[in-house]
């Protein structure tokens, strides 16, 4: 058993004492703000709410959210519906979520030709090319291997692209940064399968191909495949969702989204990159000098304040908790600082433990709002020492409008009415 | 970045080398068993599967599992449908799941009068009784408090009750042990709210009441409420599911399920237990001497092998991974041992990290099946030193058929055909 009051003790370091005293013992205004909305005590039967007066709904085989939460969904947009039906993306509504796990139904989507409806008994994974012995796996064979489960984010290289527009878009945190989601993934370490196939001398890259109509394909350095890559079979406890690659996907923790090839059907060991359409026609970073950086695999250190953010409104003055998520392709988040004065000064947020490698980390900082204007920013640091860049620093080397691998500091302005907007600083 | 081959290195301690050599370099029989089902390489376009030939399905606002997974659902049974509609339970199908997080749609249910359909704007939580100042909270007020997110299991006190029958029931691991599930919960530490209300001298218990038609109510010692209790508002990132208490539930990590009162509407501080119908007419443990133990709050150390288990069939000889989940109300799981010979000898399984307190811990042990009969058992130990008891030890003090708080060692027999059955040992 943990010591008594462990939760309260854990919170204490993040609440400075003067604020905490007011918060707990309560001036009239704090009490009115935070909790007491009425002192009429609805404890007699006459005042029981409607739903206590009749039996509720029956049990169900597979549950769904409350109908009152119908607005919490993935906004989505298609790119070129007539050229490539099913291409586009949908985004995790971070402004409505909490914690670190993304519900599987709200994990972001990025498809290039729709979601294939794969029969798991028919699907096969081929390992071939520069191997001693080509291997062909059915799902039931793969499922018998020793498995690992790990909590990791996946982030599309196009995430936060809306913030590359000339003017800051007035859209939610999810609509900007929602091409990133975190799940507990369970699968087979890829290194086991490659060792079983036998890696031939000269093999240094792997072509990974999906079984969708776009044959989405990426070239992966062999070193990453032998490091922490897995063939993911389960997401948050159950078989992968169709939009996440059912029945199997490549998982390359910390690397840009489309290298985590969904509906994985083929891994071919090669001597060099294959230069597929999906790594030449897009997902490259055009620089000011006209050259494009290719194979920007590892994702940068990043954070976003999810509350308060665009679409929220602070209805009254008083205590709020500023909170958000931070992540990095390099490993663990070690620090998140928050500024409420447009970067003039910074204060450390509490990192909600445990902090997993290459996973969303929830940060929190209690804050008193006194009805004045502010600009809120969060700045993350990771265990490689990397610090989230400002907009100016991030955009400096790139051509105007370059909208991949954007990890610059997000700023939200609060006006005197408590309304939030997206601002560039 | 972790060292290269970190996943493989992590696996090595769990694989003894002779087995690993056979596994990796492959005798013909192992190869045939594990991976190679065909050497015809389907890499030319003619052999592309059907789903690569037409665009896939469009994106969606809220995703659902593949239709091929329709059988993975919660089995449920009602108790007294005419007396109390909506009473009964549904169970997490552990035999089909992996990792540690339970998908919210498959979290077990136990209702006493159905699932209320609560309007979150109307719902109120009252804190009253022996307090300096009664408090009444709407959801939006509670949501502004500093929050914490933690991964915890909830287990019904009636879980594993089917194994109290005179003969071992031939049903799945989920049908026996599925009244236990794990989620990432986010909510307000209850201690914060109690300190704000002001605890009057003499208060030592709390009555917690739900807003369902059964007014499900339990008495809770104040010490637990001041320890790690929270008012949970989010489950796996999104607002609680209706079956889990939307819009708020009491969460008492490690304590029997029905003390985690769903649809929480009232906390009354009292001098003594209230002795509600839900803690007197049931959820007590009848002993052989005719006396019933009451208030068995903390759940015992427990584990269950989920693969292989009843309903699975080992189709051929070769390498399998024995895996399952372990948990304890006392804190962390420190050890899980596996016996394949009906308890004659035991071998340590690998605990898949990170190991959270009061949460499912996934354990794994690679194992070669040679087509002979076995009895598989798992035995968990926790950081309080408690060891999961045998059936004989567990049942000794109780009246025949006592079916609460059952945590004895589950045994699965494998016959020479690879079929699994539930056995008492």
Q: What does this 3D model show about the protein?
A:
- 2 copies of one chain form a homodimer.
- Chain A contains 9 helices and 24 strands.
- The first copy, chain A, is an alpha+beta fold.
- Chain A has 2 domains: 109-287, Oxidoreductase, molybdopterin-binding domain (Sulfite Oxidase, Chain A, domain 2); 302-423, Sandwich (Immunoglobulin-like), CATH 2.60.40.
- The first copy, chain A, starts with 5 loop residues before the first helix and ends with a strand.
- The model of chain A is unreliable at 1-40 (pLDDT under 50).
- Helix content of chain A is 12%, strand content 29%.
- At the A-B interface, α1, β2, β4, β5 and β7 of A face α1, β2, β4, β5 and β7 of B.
How do the strands and helices of this protein lay out in sequence?
Two copies of one chain form a homodimer.
Chain A: H1 6-11, H2 17-25, H3 28-34, E1 76-78, E2 88-90, E3 109-111, E4 124-129, E5 135-138, H4 139-142, E6 148-155, H5 173-177, E7 180-189, H6 190-197, E8 205-210, E9 217-221, H7 222-226, E10 230-235, E11 238-239, E12 249-251, E13 264-270, H8 277-280, E14 285-286, E15 292-293, E16 302-307, E17 318-327, E18 333-339, E19 347-348, E20 350-351, E21 361-369, E22 374-382, H9 391-395, E23 411-414, E24 420-423
Parallel strand pairs in A: 4-13
Antiparallel strand pairs in A: 1-2, 2-3, 4-5, 6-7, 7-10, 8-9, 8-13, 10-11, 10-12, 14-15, 16-17, 17-21, 18-19, 18-22, 20-21, 22-23, 23-24
